[in-house]
Write a structure and sequence with these properties.
The structure is a single chain. By secondary structure, the protein is of the alpha+beta class. It has three domains: 68 residues; 210 residues, f41 fragment of flagellin, N-terminal domain (Up-down Bundle), CATH 1.20.1330; 123 residues, no CATH class. Helices cover 51% and strands 13% of the residues. Strands 3-4-7-6 form a four-stranded antiparallel beta sheet, with helices on one face. A four-stranded mixed beta sheet has the order 5-8-9-10, covered by helices on one side. A two-stranded antiparallel sheet has the order 1-2. Helix 1 packs antiparallel against helix 10. The termini are close together. 33% of the residues are buried.
Length: 495
Amino acid sequence: MVSSLYDLQTPMVARLTELRGQYDGLAKQLSTGKAADTYGGLGNSRGLDIALRTRSAEIKAWQTSITNVDLRLKLMDTSLSRIADIGDEVKNAADPNVYTLNTKGQTNAQSIAKTSLAEMVGLLNTDAAGRYLFSGKDVDVKPVESLDKILDGTGTLAGFKQVASERLQADLGDDDLGRLDISSAGTTVTLAEDGDHPFGFKLTGIVSNLSNATITQPSGTPATGSVEFTDVPANGETITVHAELPDGTTTSIELIVSDDPDQENGFAAGATAADTTANFQAALEDAIAEEAATTLSAASSMQAAADFFDTSNGGTPQRVDGPPFDTATALRDGSTDTVTWYVGENGTDDARSTASARIDDTLTIEYGSRANEEGFQQVIQSLAVMTISTFDSAVDTDRDRYGALASRANTMLNEQPGVNRVETIQVELSTTHYAVTKASQRHTATSGTLTTLVEEIEAVDLDEVAVKMLTLKTRLEASYQASALLSQMSLGDYI
């Protein structure tokens, strides 16, 4: 009989334990709002829940990447916008016809150029949390040297000022005639390049309406041309020498037959062909010397800037192979004794490919940049040339030299065919930024949907849980009462 009483209590205790476990589980659901602590507790929905959470984690990783890229692209766009504005400001200020010098021998436009150049160096050294944005793949390297180092050099490394000075000597030559030799024999004046090299004037042609003169067009390497007077030309007739300049631009030097001693680039027809030859040679030498001091000198400065700053695609600074510089015949690699202004990564691949980020299953964007890209380089060249040049109001040719220099700086800062301008770089990165923004919007929407689906699987209806708990509580109380009655029964009660 005792055994029968025990047999009644044992399953009741087990049932109480089961009910208590269910009640505790519901209480936990009520406090956490979750259906289960483990995926196993989700039953048949566990596979779907795992897949949804995995996808959500992937999107979260992409969103983290997007957040970083978004910040970098915004900073880059700000820098690019300002660099573009700098180019416009200097271009507008650099009027070739405005020539008022300050005590340093520079115009107001040049002062603006120097300030702008310093600002541009800072913009190209922009970083985001220690990551430099215009340094190619070397994101931990500050890409652009200090302005003082770039212009003045340091130690044994020559700066731009020295490189430009050496280039000017090479372009002018030892007699300041732009590396041209002018000679005469009888009634023939010969104009010849002084060697096969990249410096000075390069003769391209002679155009003349002179009567009693025979023209031999420049030919050969180095080029040589001549003018032979067979008799005396008439007043008002002209002859023009055409030449190419070091920076790829061209110039024309026109001489006119005139008996007016004040006529610019004029030469008098003498009594004989021999007299005319002497007059023409003297006028030609003067005209070429003036052109060398003005247009050629400006072109030399621009080309020196190209030699120094054009280091993209793995290039190195170039400088005149000398001394002596005024008779030099070649350029040389200046990487060992010349400041390299850009010290970031300098590969031959596309600059955009130097930084990338995956922002979706199938979308990887590229947003790298190098400070020595053509668009940046052209602005820096123009500003640097304007910055280092000085002029003297007492020197007659300096006004024209400034005009030629300002004109060239303006041209370089204007849109040119085939040149990857700053605005082009900005458009490329803006297009990338648009794709990043759209991907972020997609991920935000998808993430919201995934969160809703996961909540539907994992979450519980709190009202329903409360009702179940109340029901279980009632059953538990009844079971406890029954169990208590059984535990109070004696053998006598049972009999």
